Amino acid sequence: LPDGILNLTAMSNVFGSARIILRATDSQNRSVDEILSVAVKNHLPSVLGQSFALNENSEKGEIVGTIKALDPDEDRLTFSIIEQSEPGVFQIDADTGELKVTDPYALDFERTSQFNLKVGVSDSFRPFRRIPAEVTIHLRDIDEPPVVLDQEFELLDGTAEGVELGAVQAS
Questions:
Q1: Is the pLDDT of residue 13 over 60?
Q2: What's the rounded Cα separation, in Å, for the pair 100 and 141?
Q3: Which among 104, 108, 129 is positioned nearest to 44, based on CA atoms?
Q4: How many beta carbons lie within 10 A of that of residue 170, not counting itself?
Q5: Residue 65, Cβ neighbours under 10 Å: how many?
Q6: Upstream peptide bond of 127 is cis (omega within 30 degrees of 0)
Q7: What's phi and psi for 50, nearest 5 deg?
Q8: Residues 133, 131: Cα–Cα separation, whole Å
Q9: By CB count within 10 A, which of 66, 123, 126, 141 is most buried?
């Protein structure tokens, strides 16, 4: 090493340790060895609990939000849903962390005002470790127009004025 500097660069996704023996020799062929140990470690990704709001009656494929996660090693992250309070309502893009609606019929505020998910984030390091985070999706109540069903009422000949014929059913 003409300048006395040794540069080591770790390859992506290569972890472990190495022992390097450095030998310095002077002009009279006297040498001294020094052992240098180098450890390359993976740092786990981090993800915090997150919350999103979504209108009830949203359509299939609508984007709820994107899970935010960081990896100190800048490894590629993989996202997954570990649990859902109501299975099958949402899906997550494994590469981007984007949450989407898969079952729009379940998005009824009058039935369920929020959904709880546990998502997992992992990097490409082996052995596989998935870091969990809680995600809450709050449904916004949307004013829905009433629905009036077809109904029939019978008016008999000679019915007096002001007599109630029936009640209109609406929801």
A1: no
A2: 19
A3: 129
A4: 10
A5: 16
A6: yes
A7: -140, 160
A8: 7
A9: 123
Q: How far apart are CA 92 and CA 171, in angstroms?
A: 34
Sort 64 into a burial class: Cβ within 10 Å, 0-12 / 13-18 / 19+. buried
pLDDT for 127 equals: 65
Residue among 60, 27, 49, 29 at smallest CA distance from 133: 49
Output the pLDDT for position 137. 98
d(CA 123, CA 131): 9
Q: What is the structure's pLDDT at 15? A: 59
**Is residue 36 classed as helix, strand or coil in its secondary structure?**
strand
Tell the residue number behind the tokens 């000679």, with chain if given: 158
What confidence tens digit (pLDDT) does each residue in 60-98 have? Answer: 999 999 999 999 888 899 999 999 999 999 999 999 999
Q: Which pair of tokens denotes residue 30?
A: 């006297």
